[in-house]
Design brief:
The complex is a heterodimer of chains A (151) and B (129). Chain A is of the alpha+beta class. Chain A contains five helices and seven strands. In chain B, a hairpin with a 2-residue loop joins strand 3 and strand 4. Chain B has a four-stranded antiparallel sheet with strand order 1-2-3-4, with no helix packed on it. Chain B has a four-stranded antiparallel sheet with strand order 5-6-7-8, with no helix packed on it. A two-stranded antiparallel ribbon of chain B has the order 9-10. Chain B is an alpha+beta fold. Chain B is 16% helix and 48% strand. The chains are: A alpha+beta (151), B alpha+beta (129).
Chain lengths: 151, 129
């Protein structure tokens, strides 16, 4: 029986560096998901101009996903979170997101954790709700903004 | 009698039109405490009885970002739109509705991030149950 603990499955978040950023650009979404978030390449470019921190999501030694957050005046904002289409629906995303939340809540500057996503992305809302996010409003680009409520 | 009746029929639509037009719509401007960031709020009605289409423009030294939304209120004035600056980079803009309740737009005016969140709350209470 599969053990869902992150330790056994070796799910880790690692900062993107000059050695692994190109791998991140090879991650792919299902066709229907591509309209929901910008490409990894766009996100990496954005991270050079905004206070954003890109990470690779690893299962063992393989990069299987991408996450990026920013810190803006005390609010830590998970601005990207995606898993490669070959690694979705295996529970990896949930484990990685829980790790990211653990990491963020230990940061003194993160007084609040939020995320946002395209309003058509119903799966994202279900996913973030499952770990304790609640909808709080609508953002500039009409996306749904959710806030993590500690439970 | 017939003339009076005709005049009434002419006056009635005009009366309805003026009633539906609602109150005044002002352009509002809010400067940050240090004066280097600002928020402009403008509104217009696309139909006499329709909502006010509000456009907020957030300005920081490096640039601006605008967004629009519908506001179901009779007027847009300095009396029913107020801004509270939490610091030089963050401001909550409060929009009062005709029934006295209010909702809020939370704004971030940072050098590398301009963001606004129109909250799913009325008077601080979530509209989701």
């Amino acid at each position: 029986m599969e053990n869902p603990s992150s330790t056994d499955r070796r799910i880790q978040l690692k900062p993107l560096t000059r050695f692994n950023w190109e791998q991140a650009t090879q991650l792919q979404l299902h066709d229907y998901q591509e309209d929901f978030l910008p490409s990894v390449l766009f996100s990496l470019a954005q991270s050079k101009f905004e206070n954003l921190f890109p990470y690779g999501i690893y299962e063992g030694d393989a990069m299987v996903g991408f996450a990026m957050y920013g810190e803006f005046d005390g609010v830590c904002w998970i601005s990207r979170f995606m898993l490669d289409k070959a690694h979705q629906e295996k529970g990896i995303g949930r484990l990685a997101l829980l790790q990211l939340l653990d990491m963020l809540r230990l940061q003194p500057r993160c007084k609040e954790i939020r995320t946002s996503f395209a309003r058509q992305n119903a799966l994202a809302e279900y996913f973030f709700r499952s770990v304790g996010f609640e909808p709080m409003g609508e953002g500039v680009d009409r996306e749904i903004v959710m806030r993590w409520v500690r439970k | 009698m017939k003339i009076i009746s005709h005049r009434l029929w002419l006056l009635l639509p005009l009366l309805l039109l003026f009633t539906a037009c609602g109150g005044p719509i002002e352009s509002l401007h809010f400067d940050s405490p240090a004066g280097d960031r600002s928020i402009d709020v403008v509104g217009k009605r696309e139909s006499p009885a329709g909502p006010i289409i509000v456009t907020m423009t957030l300005t920081v030294p490096a640039g601006t970002k605008s967004f629009s939304f519908e506001h179901q209120a009779g007027s847009l004035t300095k009396d029913n739109v107020t801004a509270t600056w939490l610091n030089n980079n963050r401001c909550n803009v409060n929009f009062k509705l005709d029934d006295g309740t209010a909702w809020e737009v939370e704004t971030f005016l940072l050098d590398d991030k301009i963001e606004a969140v129109k909250k799913f709350e009325i008077d601080g209470k979530s509209i989701f149950h």
